[in-house]
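Example record

One chain of 270 residues, shown exactly as stored in the release files.
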Amino acid sequence: MAQKIVRASDGQEVKPAAEEKKPAKKPAAEAKPAQNIKEAKPSSGNSIPYRIGAVVLWVLAIACEALAIMVLLGYMYPPFDKVPFLIVMIVLDLVFAIVAAQLWKKANRIKPMSGKNKLLFYLWSELGVIMACVCFIPLIILLIKDNKLDKKSKIIVTIVAIVALLITGVASADFNPITAEEKAEAEETITGDVYWSTFGHKYHLSTECYHIRDSSTLYQGTVTEAIESGRTAICSYCATHYAEGLDLDKLNVEDAPAEAAPEEVVEPAA
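Predicted structure tokens for this chain:
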């Protein structure tokens, strides 16, 4: 079956010969076209709209928490029963906080913070988790201390709030942050196209990498587009096999154990 390669930006089919553009300094090697390869959409290159959107949504999340606290303390009476109202506010709080964190992480991919101060870099990268705590922990503390709700209602609402906190915290965490220095070095060093699959957080230097060669669809684009799509590290298998001449010490390379190549099968001697 002939390979079909589609540009993601306009949906047009292109010839397979246009698929393989090697990063600078990589040894020339022909990759076998075994999957669909889509060209990534160009980056907007502006992190400010994402940061503004994140802040607005965090404000809305805190507003939902504040409304729930006011109802809980008796300073406001909801238009319907108290328990359903509290649950609705918690769910809205969760939705706003998670979407805000995704926008914040997107902004950090476009314009990451310097990694020279590790504490500030960590706090900046994990601001979504910090805000998740701000959006839920005060309410949870008040729920635990509350003596106005009946016992059953108190348990239900408290469990919902704790589960919402855990979900928001996990969804908001940035497990693969990248520093400004790492991104700049990658953009300067890798000048050709890289590849990444639908899932995962690594980008690859060749379609022949065993991690992606069986993927039905690949995305093709610059290293900047890969990073801004959430692929912040080079696959260490690619770094070992396809990155001759690249200075890997300054790049963000995935830990080697996670990229260990499958053992080759040795044929018995005749």
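Notes: DSSP finds eight helices and seven strands in the chain.
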